[in-house]
Design a protein that fits this description.
The chain is an alpha/beta fold. The protein has 27 helices and 22 strands. The strands form three sheets. It has an eight-stranded mixed β-sheet with strand order 7-14-13-9-10-11-12-8. The chain has an eight-stranded parallel beta barrel with strand order 15-16-17-18-19-20-21-22, surrounded by five helices. The longest helix is centred in the N-terminal third of the chain and has 25 residues.
């Protein structure tokens, strides 16, 4: 059975269309189970009826034309129950309903299993016999297994627009279809979608033998140069909005086109006898396949970059490059299967209201650029029927990673209120810039920012940041095609330290692995989040760690505001080793004559093991900073970048709250700084609870800082502690959120919470 399932899956995956895939399934299943009938019914996303889409054994002429209502027939019973229905005699069952014209009146036995994807019933797979007999457990198990695999095929067909609606009627506005993704850049966008497609399709290019090697090579180099010019123009078009680090994203594209990389391989293929287009296809697809086989998310993003470049070169070879600018007469929400940095560069910034990418994550180049330019973005919207959303009204919720298509007026009004409130609150926040973050009863809370790009400095200072609680050094590493030299790192870190001096700047040592990787330093693991990452990598590569430490300390010369933070600490031995190396690096820099002081050193508490050794760790370092993102992820065993389990990731889970409170209790009598630098710190609801627990420093994105300050300045510490006491007795994350929402409403501060309102409008 396993080999049969594999063969069917391979055939279905290779099918050219959804009807072809469904026909393969009903034909192969009927034969494998020796059934007289095999049929597939799919749910019409508009009418919610079960449409007979493919059959072998029933009247094939009615396929696509007949359907069962959501509450009639055995098929709908399977869908409502979301479990198999196995009957010896279907005709005597009270839910039996004859489907007119199908010819099923002579079939008695019935086995139907639901086709479920992400908890949603997409359809029902049915087998039938004339004889009265119950299908055995093995047959039922086989059909359940097959339907589980079929669900992925149908979901992909929906995403590509093949079956978004099985009826010819257009979907009216007011349907409020909701799709989930991963937040890429915060904010709300309301507008009309424009679907962007790659300019050429490498998959359809054939091999063609040629002896005109010189002519083909010349054509190829001309196309290559044209693409280089396109990328330079795209970079120049938005350069005023980007820092040097962000512009380096475009340099990655240019380096890929270098003769020693892709171009050289294509030329060799041409000299072997293939024409330029065929040679290009061979080389690009070979590289894409290599990257796609890698587990690391960042390297898979590089596969999309290669695919995009290959299509662009092909379009110039074929002289069919479309004029992208002609499609944007008004500001729009840009949608694509794989949005890339170069696609973004082709579109005028004032024409972009929001971005949605079916593929990708918050780690992709386009997400980095979107955050830099303040464009609401959702990534990883796997089930979005993107091909059908051109000129369709949309709402993009970049806070929660949601997309609404065909929104109702009521939903638009609700989100428009959020947009309007954002605008008004931004004006209100301006008045708070130079005021302290202090409660009504005088409790002082320090608000720092998380940074990674040079452009973050000005934005952060404009919003009243008191220092940097987390500078992510991996960002400047990621936008290069090699490790930055020690001198280059000195320049990078000096910019951050000078920008905030004399305020403290906490620089985290290189934190790669998991969902963060370097294109020139691949880490290929089956389970990267539990693998070689953070401090484990750098302690294994002292040449990387020591160069970083020396660069950080040199950059602090004369400023004395450097703090060094160690990520992913799981035991005291790692801290002991790292501290010895930091002292060594400090001594080496002093010997070189730099005017430096020994920086304060801290560790991140983001692994459950560290939570239980907080007291021991606090005796070894100057400060502790809780990384609430990873701590939540590891406590709940939920990949926070995976949209399929996004509903399970919740920083207000009682276990997370108890862990955070436990950390404070363990170090209450220790002379050690304590802060939080994860996303929870930037959520006003989370900020209230963290302050009530005893955390005195919160570090967040610059966009979150004003609203947190506004909330804290409108509440007392006593009120915050009363809220904490009430929610700590609760056992459900949703109950915590609902209770806090109610308490904040009673305290007249709910209006300052934009992200929480977005969760209530749908």
């Amino acid at each position: 059975m396993l080999s049969l399932l594999r063969r069917i899956t391979q055939e279905v995956t290779a099918a050219q269309s959804l009807p072809a895939a469904l026909d393969i399934i009903v034909r192969r299943v009927r034969r494998a189970m020796r059934a007289e009938v095999c049929s597939i019914y799919l749910v019409d996303t508009n009418t919610k009826e079960y449409v007979l889409m493919a059959t072998r054994g029933l009247n094939a002429d009615v396929a696509g034309l007949v359907s069962l209502k959501a509450d009639e027939g055995l098929v709908s019973l399977v869908g409502r129950r979301a479990e198999p229905v196995n009957l010896e005699d279907a005709h005597i069952h009270p839910s039996f309903h004859y489907l007119k014209g199908s010819g099923e009146e002579r079939y008695r036995s019935f086995l139907g299993v639901p086709i479920i994807h992400h908890r949603q019933v997409l359809g029902v797979l049915v087998v039938q016999h004339e004889d009265k007999r119950r299908f055995d457990e093995g047959e039922e198990a086989f059909l359940i297994t097959l339907s589980a695999q079929l669900a992925g095929v149908i979901a992909h067909a929906e995403a590509t627009g093949a079956i978004a609606s099985l009826t010819p009627n257009n979907i009216p506005n007011g349907s409020d279809f909701r799709y989930k993704g991963v937040p890429g850049s915060s904010g709300v966008a309301i507008g009309r979608g424009v679907v962007v497609f790659p300019p050429a399709d490498l998959d359809v290019i054939p091999d063609r033998y040629t002896t005109e090697f010189d002519e083909e090579i010349q054509d190829f180099y001309q196309a290559l140069e044209a693409v280089r010019q396109d990328i330079r123009r795209a970079s120049n078009r938005i350069s005023q909005h980007l820092s040097a680090d962000e512009k380096a994203l475009f340099d990655v594209y240019l380096k890929i086109l270098d003769d020693n990389a892709i171009a050289g391989e294509v030329v060799r293929k041409i000299k072997e006898g293939n024409w330029a287009q065929g040679a290009l296809r061979h080389v690009i697809k070979a590289h894409i396949n290599q990257f796609n086989r890698m587990d690391d998310p960042y390297l898979r993003e590089r596969a999309s970059d290669l695919r995009d470049l290959g299509r662009r070169i092909l379009s110039h070879l074929q002289e069919k490059a479309p004029n992208v600018l002609e499609r944007f007469s008004e500001p729009s929400i840009i949608i694509g299967e794989e949005l890339t940095a170069s696609m973004l560069g082709e579109i005028p910034i004032d024409k972009i209201k929001g971005l949605v990418s079916v593929m990708g994550s918050g780690n992709s180049h386009v997400a980095i650029l979107a955050r830099a330019m303040g464009i609401p973005t959702v990534m990883g919207a796997l089930d979005l029927p993107y091909a059908q959303l051109d000129k369709v009204d949309l709402i993009v919720d970049g806070y929660l990673g949601k997309i609404f298509t065909h929104p109702s007026e009521a939903l638009i009004d609700s989100y428009q209120q959020i947009v309007d409130e954002e605008r008004l609150l931004e004006e209100e926040y301006e008045t708070l810039k130079d005021l302290p973050c202090e409660t009504l009863d005088g409790q002082r809370l320090s608000l720092y920012v998380n940074t990674g790009l040079s452009a973050d400095i000005v934005r952060s200072l404009d919003r009243g940041a008191e220092g940097i609680g987390l500078y992510r050094t991996e960002v400047p590493f990621m936008v290069r095609d090699r490790f930055p030299t020690e001198a280059e790192q000195v320049t990078i870190y000096r910019q951050q330290l000078e920008g905030f001096a004399p305020a403290p700047v906490t620089v985290r040592t290189l934190d790669i692995g998991g969902d963060k990787a370097l294109p020139y330093f691949p880490i290929n693991e089956e389970n990267p989040f539990l693998g070689w990452r953070g401090i484990r990598v750098t302690l294994d590569h002292l040449e990387i760690f020591m160069a970083q430490i020396r660069a950080m300390i040199k950059a602090s010369a004369g400023l004395y505001n450097l703090k060094i933070m160690l990520p992913m600490i799981s035991n005291v031995a790692e801290v002991e080793e790292a501290m010895a190396l930091i002292r060594r690096g400090y001594a080496e820099v002093k010997e070189e004559g730099y005017d430096v002081k020994m920086p304060k050193v801290g560790v991140m508490i983001e692994i459950p093991a560290a939570v239980y050794q907080v007291k021991e760790l606090s005796e070894m370092v100057d400060f502790l900073s809780v990384g609430s993102n990873d701590l939540t992820q590891y406590l709940l065993a939920v990949d926070r970048n995976n949209p399929r389990v996004a509903d399970l990731y919740n920083s207000f889970h009682p276990s997370v709250l108890r862990a955070l409170l436990s950390i404070v209790d363990q170090v209450r009598d220790e002379d050690v700084g304590l802060s939080v630098c994860g996303e929870m710190a930037g959520d006003p609801m989370g900020a209230i609870l963290l302050m009530a627990m005893g955390y005195e420093v919160l570090s967040m994105s610059s966009t979150s800082l004003p609203k947190v300050k506004a909330v804290i300045r409108n509440i007392s510490l006593q009120q915050a502690q009363a809220m904490l006491n009430e929610v700590m007795t609760l056992s459900h994350a949703e109950a915590v959120t609902q209770t806090m929402t109610r308490l904040m409403r009673e305290a007249n501060i709910e209006r300052l919470i934009r992200p929480s309102k977005t969760s209530n409008v749908d």
